[in-house]
């Protein structure tokens, strides 16, 4: 379900998340958030979620690199 609330941007560029949204999402005072900017929207995500996804992607890359970063792979992909 989409729940639309309004907020006002202050002269310092700050906004306050409406209480109902904070309660639904679990955001609490002092929580760190990531503001992700897309061409047509922004998203506010908990920093722990972003860190977790980045760490997972990094771990996957490291574990796959040992199998993929070999000369045979270079040859196979060279002409593509």
Commentary on this structure:
The chain is an alpha+beta fold and 80 residues long. The chain has a domain of 47 residues. The protein is 45% helix and 12% strand. It contains 3 helices and 2 strands; from the N terminus they run H-E-E-H-H. It has a two-stranded antiparallel sheet. The termini are far apart. The model has no long low-confidence stretch (mean pLDDT 81).
Secondary structure layout:
Blueprint: H1 19-25, E1 33-37, E2 42-46, H2 47-68, H3 71-77
Antiparallel strand pairs: 1-2
> What's the helix-strand series?
HEEHH
pLDDT averaged residue by residue:
81
Strand order, sheet with most strands: 1-2
- The strand count comes to 2
What tags apply to this protein structure?
about 80 residues, alpha+beta, two-stranded antiparallel sheet, 2 strands
Explain briefly what this protein structure is.
The protein is α+β, with helices and mostly antiparallel strands and 80 residues long. The chain has a domain of 47 residues.
């Amino acid at each position: 379900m989409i729940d639309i609330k309004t907020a006002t941007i202050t002269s310092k560029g700050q906004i306050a998340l409406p209480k109902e949204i904070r309660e639904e999402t679990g955001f609490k005072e002092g929580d760190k958030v990531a503001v992700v900017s897309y061409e047509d929207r922004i998203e506010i995500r908990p920093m722990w979620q972003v860190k977790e996804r980045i760490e997972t992607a990094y771990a996957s890359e490291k574990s796959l690199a040992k199998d993929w970063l070999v000369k045979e792979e270079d040859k196979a992909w060279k002409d593509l």
